[in-house]
Amino acid sequence: MAKEKAVFVCQNCGYISPKWVGKCSNCNSWNSFIEEMQSVEPKGLKSKTQATAGNAIKISEIRRREITRIKLPYDEFNRVLGGGLVPGSLVLLGGEPGIGKSTLVLQTVLNLKDQKVLYVSGEESENQIKLRAERIGIKNDNCYIYTETNIEKIIATIKSIEPQIIIIDSVQTVASADLTSSPGTVSQVRECTRLLQEYAKEFEIPVILIGHINKDGDIAGPMSLEHIVDAVFQFEGDNNHYYRLLRPKKNRFGSTYEIGVFEMQNYGLKEITDPGNILLTGENTGLSGVAYGTIGEGSRTLMIEIQSLIGNSVYSSPQRTSTGFDSRRFQMILAVIEKRLGLNLSQKDAFVNIAGGIKVSDTAADLAVLASVVSSYYDKPLPENTCFVGELGLSGQIRPVSFIDKRVSEANRLGFTNVFISAAQKSELDKKTSGVIPVSDVRDFAAKLFRKGN
Ligand code: TYD
Ligand code: MG
Residue 275: which residues within 8 A CB-CB, separation 6 or more? Predict the structure, then answer.
């Protein structure tokens, strides 16, 4: 009989320590250890059975089975999945509370009228789900709702209903009665996922797991879960904003490069098939400190609006704050401006914000951030209908970026008639693009910018 012993498990990465510690030595997170019971095999009972050799097979001899994906009613969702839901796969959908995960999944399955779906909710009552379904306004006779948190009961219900798609909302609320730790802990989440995975693989049924994310943006507790599941998607956007991005973090059946774009409306989410300018506010043209740039998201280019504010600091060490943009990269851009353009920012507070509540990691936004800082410093608006595409090097050179052709054409299509790009990329451009202003470094850029803007 296995005995139980108390151990401390990091809720961020699953690292096990025999004693409580304040900081995880594996993932460096603070205060993440929780006591959990773990079964230990008595010593001396190690398996003595001799295993027989298994069959390894040449890759050339493996016969590939065609996967028939389940097409979801939203193309934005299908594209991110790599063409639809793969039978037997486990998909984890993470996002902040209230961002619209339950809405997205419920709305998707309500629209799938010919598939039997089981929607297990450990968070909301049947009544709440019914109200949401009414708000979304789609009737469906094939969607079963089950409010339960005990995984053994859930599996039993799955076996009796035999759904073709299973939804678990959320993975942090379900728990196994065989474990003493509370729901949401690493061991519970792993065990419940393992049980669901066993079922999913055996009966080739896809399972969508909804998960919450913690303040660092990781799917709370089960970072370890990301290894087990086949695909991990993040649903993100600003709570006060209408747009939502569905972004893959991992996908065994498709690219992690594509994003899906939705808009939250009164009757649920609407897919946005032409999202080029959704992140622009349209309110700030003609103001100083506002610059436009592009980010490449898979096969798409999105225009972004960058807002900077440079002001005199009242403190001895000025503030540097960035929202939606990497703060170290922002510091680097400020340093390049000081050193290569000679602007004195050492006594200035500097703030940068990306409109629309998204996080930008594309370095092609560097030049737009630089332009917005310079514009705010001089309190002079940037020229109209102008956008900035380029990566910044420490020496002040404007470096090439990927898919320049696509970015410039999209900017042109959306009415940007002047596009600053790296001089190194001028020859890569299509003849159809127009208004391109090649610049080699920040000095060249400043000279041309002010000539343009008078
Ligand atoms: P929800 O799906 O409950 O978020 P999550 O499951 O990620 O926690 O979404 C909740 C938010 O969405 C809530 O603040 C209300 C809003 N909402 C709408 O604006 N329109 C709608 O039609 C629905 C169903 C929700
Ligand atoms: Mg929810």
Answer: 243, 261, 300, 302
